[in-house]
Amino acid sequence: MSLLELLQKRRSVRVFDPEKPISQEEVRRCIEMATLAPNSSNMQLWQMIHLVDPKWKEPLTRACLGQSAASTAQQWVVFVTRQDLYRSRAKYILAFEKNNIATYSPESRKAKRIADREVYYGKIMPFLYGRFFRVFGLIRVLMVEVMGLFRPVVREVSESQMRAVVHKSCALAAQTFMLAMAEKGYDTCPMEGFDSKLVKKMLDLPRGTNINMIISCGIRKEEGIWGERCRVPFDQVYEIK
User: Fold this and answer.
1) What is the rounded distance in angstroms from the CA atom of residue 78 to the CA atom of residue 175?
2) Based on the domain organization, do 117 and 17 belong to the same domain?
3) pLDDT tens digits along 133-160
4) In the list 37, 58, 123, 211, which could disulfide-bond 176, CB 3.0-4.6 Å?
5) Which pLDDT score, from 0 to 100, does residue 1 have?
6) Rounded CA gap, 25 and 50, in Å?
7) What range does the domain containing 144 cover?
8) Mean pLDDT, to the nearest integer, of 174-192?
């Protein structure tokens, strides 16, 4: 299928066919493809929890407020933000980048590029993603306000704004996953209506995590699509200058 065909095929399916199973391995491959999604500073502060055991259906449906998209699904993927892992992810990426530079960069630029990465992933990223009762965020905001008097700066650095950055990156991965599933001939439904406290407790997630969305997976029944897709007129969302 072309990209346009994939986008047209992907719909939020509310009822899945229980007589049509889907492959656990193919869903896993779609999750793997989702990790190729672009994300802020390549920090990859996400985790995808693939639920395949039928035992999850009842508690997950309850946590998802009884939605049929949850109760009729064959499998589920919980997209989780992992801002709590910012130090280990930055350390991993820094090591990778050093090797990348050593392998592919011209000799004359290696030292400078490695030094830049050490500052970026060794100092800037830990500073940006660190949290401490909003104190770190306030310090960052004050710093960029002063810096912004002299040059353009990224101003969205408070703790709540950095949390939004992590969720945006995770959502890009979730969208990539849904398109990969459509290419496999499978259907999905992204759910944001759920009790996050129940889901986190159910999956035994650390305190510093958040649920980005839960995506139910299966093959659609005819009644699983609620009519034609609605989009506001394009000229209301598009502007050219």
Assistant:
1) 13
2) no
3) 888 899 999 999 999 999 999 999 999 9
4) 37
5) 85
6) 11
7) 86-159
8) 97
